[in-house]
Amino acid sequence: MRYFFILILLIGINLQASQEEGERLFKKYCWGCHHQTSLAFGPSFSEIASLRDSGQIIAHIVNPEDSYESLGYKRSAMPAFPQLNAEELQNLADYILSFKDK
Questions:
Q1: pLDDT tens digit string along 7-35?
Q2: What angle do helix axes 86-97 and 2-25 make, rounded to 10 degrees?
Q3: Within 10 A of 16 (CB to CB), how many other CB atoms are there?
Q4: pTM here?
């Protein structure tokens, strides 16, 4: 039972770190065009989270020119962010998805 509580604690700490990293990446790369809950130049994270899954979000971050039509956009003004590694992309996608209406 003791190991179970330690495991739960470690998972909680890891999730918090992932959220913090996702928020840091948002502030560095996304804040200029997106806001968490309101429309800016681009759609809000709450809108994106209600329409997309993690894979679609990551694909659009990495290569928006290849994904904008399949996501229902008429054009893509979003730049690509190929410099983000897989862990960063997942943290950012998880952060975006945390704004999904519950």
A1: 454 444 455 567 889 999 999 999 888 98
A2: 90
A3: 10
A4: 0.77
pLDDT in tens, 30-89: 988 898 888 888 899 999 999 999 999 999 999 888 887 887 778 878 888 888 999 999
Domain ranges of the chain: 2-97
How many CA atoms within 13 Å lie on the side-chain side of 51?
11
Residues 6+ apart with CB under 8 A from 39: 47
Q: 39 is written with which tokens? A: 């429309």
> Given 1.10.150.50, 3.40.50.150, 1.10.760.10, 3.40.190.10, which CATH number is that of 2-97?
1.10.760.10
CA distances from 75 to 16, 46, 67, 79, 95 (A): 35, 20, 10, 12, 24
Query: What tokens were used for 53?
Result: 């899954």
